[in-house]
Amino acid sequence: MIQVRHQPEFLAHADALECWARARERAVLVLECEAEHALRWGLVDQALRLRSAASHLRQAALEERRRAAQLLEATAAPAHSA
Length: 82
Fold this sequence. Notes:
With 82 residues, this protein is mainly alpha-helical. It has 2 helices and 2 strands, in the order βααβ.
């Protein structure tokens, strides 16, 4: 009976996705801060672009966290036997 396990790879990939998600969230904070600054200076178009970029990054971070959770769930599942 052969057991197929990819747990180390899944865990490493999940960890990398979490790192990317955290980096994206830090970038979101910076962009939101810059958007507020742009608004104070009356640069509405620039603020809108910055907020749009922040929104895209936030969505990407959520997707990466979802994928990481799936990988972690896969490592908790019983190994398949062939």
